[in-house]
Structure to design on (128 residues):
């Protein structure tokens, strides 16, 4: 398996794992609106990541190659819908903005974790 596929698989799985862990930790140790922010933010960003991966896979897999305009249009549509949802959550005071920020950082944490794991593999492979 190539490094790109291995990283994508790791990030995809760790998104859901971190989402569940952060959500449970928020429910156990934080007020309801803060935990709600973590859960809603994590759900928004994780679903967006999976939809983007599916869009790119469908667009770049022959024989049904899509135009880059279609990919960009879908990206901006998801971005706009996510922005509207985030605005509505904050405007109606359903969630705590800091909790939402933490939830929205789940994919970034997954990518950082994947990078650290790959660097560890490279460093220790060269040390042996």
């Amino acid at each position: 398996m190539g490094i790109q596929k291995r990283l994508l698989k790791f990030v995809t799985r760790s998104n859901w794992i971190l989402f569940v862990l952060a959500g449970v930790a928020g429910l156990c140790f934080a007020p309801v609106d803060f935990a709600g922010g973590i859960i809603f933010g994590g759900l928004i960003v994780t679903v967006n990541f999976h939809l983007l991966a599916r869009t790119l896979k469908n667009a770049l897999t022959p024989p049904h190659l899509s135009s880059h305009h279609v990919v960009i249009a879908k990206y901006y549509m998801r971005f706009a819908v996510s922005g509207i949802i985030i605005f509505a959550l904050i405007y109606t005071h359903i969630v705590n903005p800091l909790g939402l920020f933490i939830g929205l950082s789940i994919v970034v944490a997954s990518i950082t974790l994947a990078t650290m794991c790959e660097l560890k593999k490279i460093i220790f492979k060269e040390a042996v």
Residues 14 and 35 are 19 Å apart (CA to CA).
